[in-house]
Amino acid sequence: MNSKKMQLNKNLTNNLITYGLVIAAFFVVQGMIWTGKSSSLMQGLLVPLCVYVILAVSLNLTVGILGELSLGHAGFMCVGAFASAFFSKCVQEAIPNSGLRFFLAILIGAAAAGLFGILIGIPVLRLKGDYLAIVTLAFGEIIKNIINVLYIGKDGNGFHFSMKDALSLHMESDGVLIINGAQGITGTPKDSSFIIGVALVLITLWIVLNIIHSRDGRAIMSIRDNRIAAESIGINITKYKLMAFSVSAALAGVAGVLYAHNLSTLTALPKNFGYNMSIMILVFVVLGGIGNIRGSVISAVILTLLPELLRGLNSYRMLIYAIVLIVMMLFNWSPKCIEFRERYSLKRLLKNRNHNKKEAE
User: What is the pTM of this model?
Assistant: First the structure.
């Protein structure tokens, strides 16, 4: 009973530290903005920074907690981004209140991405390892390419759809083209802000950390550690794998909503929702530590800010970036570094100090 209570206290302390880091970073950044010490370039990175943190934390739920390799996270982000942007563009005049409109857009983006997560997860989660990674990667590419050839307009007769060109929609003169193929959606209300982004990061952390430390989270991790043993004690493998995958997809959709409402024009370009985006999110997870939620937050922040902070170094910028990636990888995964961190951790030092104090008495 005491060990269980100690574990709960430890989990609560770790969670509070993670929340505290995010809140402290928020106040530091806000202080820099208020005092004029933050450049316009840095302020422009604040919302994308929140987007990448949400993506990294949500992907860690699939990769680190569930133990499945997914390369389709950018596809779920794309679904959430376009579903929410489409909604906001359609109801911009009907719902002038930006706060209410953005709240509804978040719900729609999360629901759309979560639904795709369930639809993709039912057949895909029967696969393992490289096969699962290839199928999820294909899903992301399919979604991006479908949106690039999709035309949707609206007039007095309702919505019109086409996958050929805008002229084939046959709209009336008062019609409005909402999705214009490869040109995407133009005129999405810019409802995103850094404050909203930080709030969504905290909500994402709360959801993921509560899942991890719950009974469902322990069932998910038991599937990751030993599927046969988990199934032998009556754990529903399909249910828990689908739960983790769909929640991860829904949170990626939330990141997509935040991303879409920070841009005046949303396009499904490869750099936005392609293969490289999925790989970059996976890099955040791996370098921060697979299964380490706080590490995902820190690595997403560092690796997003670093290229911009090094921009003045011109040709040396990417070289330093690559060196930092290697150092972070060694620090997180090298056995010697792990042993060093454990030996000189604050908790270990305090424990040794108290032990020495008791011996002196």
Answer: 0.87
